[in-house]
Amino acid sequence: MENKRDIKIIIVPILIFFVFVFSIIGFRQLMGNEFSFLGVFYSTLSFFTLENVKPEEVTINIYILIAKYLAAILLGFGIYNLLYKYISRQYTRLKIKYGYHNHVIIFSMKMVGANFLTDLLANKYKVILVEGLSENAYLEKFEKDGVIIFREEDHNTRLFDTILLTHASACVVAFEDDSMNIELSLKLIKYLREHGHKHTVRVLTHIQEQNNLEVIKDYIDISNADEKFELEVFNINSAAAKKIYDHYPPHQYFNFDNHEEDNAIAVVGYNAAAEDFIIENVILSHYKGCKNIKLYLADKDADNHINHFMFKYPFCREFIDIIPVKLLNNKFFANFNWSKELIEKLSKVKAAYFFGDEGSALMNIAARFRQFLYGQSTNYLQAPIIICFPEDTGIMGLLDVERENAEKLSSVFKKQLNINFVNRITDTCTSSRLLEESEYIDLLSRVINYYYSIKYEFEWVLKEKWQIQHSAELVKAIEDKLLELADKQAELTENEIQQLVLQHIATFTKKTVEELKPVFSIKRWWDHLSYHKKSANRYAARHLAVKINIMKNMGCMPLTRENIINAYPIIAPIEHKRWEAEKMVLNYRYGALPKDRVAKNTAKEILKIHDQLIPYDKLTEIEKEKDLNIFLLMPLLNSLKVEIKK
Predict the structure, then answer these.
(1) Low-confidence ranges of the chain (pLDDT < 50)
(2) I need a surface site. Which of 17, 155, 363, 563 has the fewest CB within 10 A?
(3) What is the pTM of this model?
(4) Whole-number pLDDT of residue 222
(5) Is 100-234 assigned to CATH 3.40.50.720?
(6) Assigned architecture for domain 250-423
(7) What are the domain boundaries of the chain?
(8) Distance CA 106, CA 268 (A)
(9) What is the per-residue pLDDT for 57?
C-alpha cells in the first residue's frame, strides 16, 4: 500500500500538468492565430499567484476557468501543507515536552529491527524514532501505533532539543555502519555533558567490528562524577551469546553429585556468536573444585577455528578445556575417523549449542545430532540443544503459516525433541533484554561496587578528605548493617541501601544527608568508574546465578552468613579464578604495580596491568577476603528489585 508521501508525489505533478493543458486549450480558443506559446506559458504561471481574479475575466473560457480552479486548489494545498507541517511540528514538540519523560529514543532500526519497536510499544514504553530519509515500509504503521518519527539525517542540537534527549531513559544508536554509530554517540555525549538533566541517560551504541569494540572498551574514558549519561556498547552476536548463556547456562544441566562424571558441553559450528559464547564460558563457567569446564568444538574446520580462537585468547586453556571434533559431514553419519572414545564422550555432553549463518542448515544439523544421540544413548532427549537462529530467511514464518502457537514448529521442536531456538536479533533486541534485564544487571553491579567502595575506600575519604576520626569503626558498622539488611527485608531497593549508608554517616559526622549525597551516593561511586571496571562489576553480577547454584550443590542453603563463611575455603578460590578469567579477557596482564599513586593508576587503567593475576594460594589474606566478600553480599543482591520507569 502506497503511503501519503507517494500519493503526493504522483498527484501534484498530474494537477500541474492539467493546469497547463486546460490553459493552453482555452487560450488557443480565445486567441486563435494570435496564440503564442511563450506568452500563454507565462500567463499560466500567474494562475498560481491568483492574478486576474475578476469574475468577468475568469469566466471568459471554460477551459481557462478549470485551469485557474486547479491552480487555486494547488496553491491552497501548498499553503495548507506548509501550515499543517508547522502546526504538526509544534504539536509534536509540545507533546514530547509535556508528555515524554523516561522515553526511549532509537536512531535507526537497521540493526535492532522492527520487532524491537513493536516490543517496546507492547510493554508500554513511549518511543521516538529518528530514521532518516530512506523509505521504510514499517514507518506508517509505527506512526499509527503511537511512535513519534523524525525523518532526519542531520543530528544536531535542534533535533536533540526537540526529542527531549536529556529526559530520555535510553538512546539506542543502531546504524549498520560503526563510524556513523561512533560519530552520533560522540554528539550525544557532548550534548548531554552540556545539557545534562538530573537523571542518567543510557546510550546504547551498536558496534559491529571486533577491533572497534575492543578499542572503545579499552580506551574510551567518560567517567566523571558529574556525568549525565551511561555509555554502553553492544553487539548483536555478543548479545545473543549472553542471552543463550543466561537462559541456558551449562550448570543448569550438569550433575555435580557424581564426582566421576564428566560434565561437558558441545559447541557445533563456529562464527562470531559462537566465539562470544565460548568467552562467556571462559569467564562465567567456574564451579566447585575449580575444574575447567570441558567444551567440544564440532565443525569441519574445528582445528583451524581453535587455532584462531587461541591466537586471540592464548590464556584460555587455563580456564577451559577445548577439544576439537572434526566433522566429516553435517549428518553426524559414518564418522569412522572419529575414535570410539571421542564418539562416546560427545554422546554424553550435557548440552549442545549450535551456531551458524544459515537457519535451515542449523535446523537440519541439530535434528541429525539428535539422531546421533539416539543411536548412542537410550536417554537421547536429556541433553538440550540450543540453536542460535540467525533469522537469515523467513523459513520459520513460512513453516508456521496457519499454525496455532502450540503447533508452531519451534514449540514442536522444544516439546518433542528438546531443541530450543534463540533468535539472534528478535530475542536479544527486546525491551526486557536491552533495557530491563540490562538495568537489573546494572543495579546489581552498582550495589556490588558500592559495597567494595564502602569497605575499601570510604575510610580513606572520611579520614583524609573529611578529617573524620575513627572512620574505620564507622565503615565496619555500615558494612555489618548492609549485610544484615537482607535478613530483615525480603525486597530492597537501591535507594533504601543508599539511605541506610548516608544516614549512618550523617549520624556519625553530624552532617545532613543532602550534604553527604554528592560524595557518598551509589551513583557517585559508579559514575567515576572506567568502562572496564563497570564491565567487571557486570560480570560479577551475572555470575550471581552460578554462585547460587554452587551453594545449592554444596548443601550451603539457605544463603546465611554462617553457611557462606563455613564454605569459604571452597568458594573463594572459585571466585578468584572467575575474576582472573574476566580480567584476562578484558585485556589485563600480570605485572608488579608501582607505588606512586599516579603511575599505579596509569598501569592499571591504561596499560591494563594487575598484580593479583596469580594463583589463589599466593594471595595475601586481605586479598583472599575480597573473594569472600562477593559471596557475603549474595543475600543482599538476591533481595534487590529493579524499578523500571516508563
Answers:
(1) 1-2, 222-226
(2) 17
(3) 0.83
(4) 45
(5) yes
(6) 3-Layer(aba) Sandwich (3.40)
(7) 4-85, 100-234, 250-423, 431-639
(8) 35
(9) 54
